[in-house]
């Protein structure tokens, strides 16, 4: 007999998995250590006029599949009415069998709005009315949704030149207990060949209140911002290494390259690699000193459709999986960081699953310092955060590392409704462990298994990141 779609034991295929999920994983809180939520919207407790605004504005995951389903752009990012955009999504959902968006869509309807109907063209009008009535009432603002999801920490993604004013304002709020902390994302500091570099450098000058004419002044400004973020509670950095490059350089060489970039607006690829390497190594020593965790997001191929990039900008659904060699440049980069005075806690992600064994094995080359799981092979990310991708990442980590020290899932989303992704991950985690128990591959010791589940779902992240104040769970 076919099981009911999305029943209470969804994705759980053994009694062990069912027990682990319902007894341990289900009710644990969440540490969202990497996301793209807006701190301003959190502070303002942004309300949503309708489900389209909450669901479809800015969600390039959905935009991609709507385009693939033949939806015209006016119903995606264009000027169509919000209901018509919602209806276009409702027509798309039934076509998404096998895509995690099909699961996530219905999980979000169930968990946040108590809607158990399948979304399609026929049910769209009634679901639109039911959900919008709730969104327009009390308890469905941005902060309310975070609280309902039992999130203890949110780490937003912030540029070094950001003021962090909304983070400061959030700290003063009464009755909102979630820590909202900044993540240091200095990508623009590394991309000296892009047109964005000089305008961004002017922003950095304004943020620091001091001119930047030399590389030493540039590094001093970055250090000042790192310490500013630390004072605001920041304990993580985040770097997009779409292509992993490595070039060893002395401080004198790096200074000359920086001066050339300011003077001519362009440097050679070899010089760019040296700038990136030297700057990253410098930053890594600050992270190590302050006890931060450094996140490296590798192998995204961004903005592939030039006409649409010119029309809509970045992060609009035209990115893909990158490839290329990473083993030698990444190992060399991490080795330079270690040799310079100490590699910080680091999480290595790749958008390309072909890199998984490389990342997991390189992580094992730099463990130490008495820190459990100091170098993490990060969770399945972006195009890989589906069932098969999560299973593959966890199996490779278990085969090559210490699975029980894994810091688990992140949201990596701009939507306040995306926290059901943690439920999705937790069900898969319990199903994987349950399958190992049922096949006799691991001992049927529920005490040990529950400790591992609680660790991967919450406790490991709490201990690893060492945020200023986090709710602990037993």
Mean pLDDT: 97
The CATH topology of the largest domain is: TIM Barrel
Q: Roughly how much helix do the residues carry, as a percent range?
A: 40-55%
Strand order of the largest sheet: 1-2-3-4-5-8-9
Largest sheet descriptor: 7 strands, parallel
Secondary-structure content class? alpha/beta
Which superfamily, in CATH terms, is the homologous superfamily of the largest domain?
Metal-dependent hydrolases
Q: Specify the overall morphology.
A: globular
CATH architecture classification of the largest domain = Alpha-Beta Barrel
> Any low-confidence stretches, pLDDT <50, length ≥5?
none
Fold and architecture overview:
The structure is a single chain. This protein is an alpha/beta fold. The protein has three domains: 1-39 and 146-181 and 407-474, Alpha-Beta Barrel (TIM Barrel), CATH 3.20.20.140; 47-135, Orthogonal Bundle (uronate isomerase, domain 2, chain A); 185-403, Metal-dependent hydrolases (TIM Barrel), CATH 3.20.20.140. It contains 20 helices and nine strands. The strands form two sheets. It has a seven-stranded parallel β-sheet, sandwiched between helices. Strands 6-7 form a two-stranded antiparallel sheet. It is globular and about 70 Å long. The two termini are 38 Å apart.
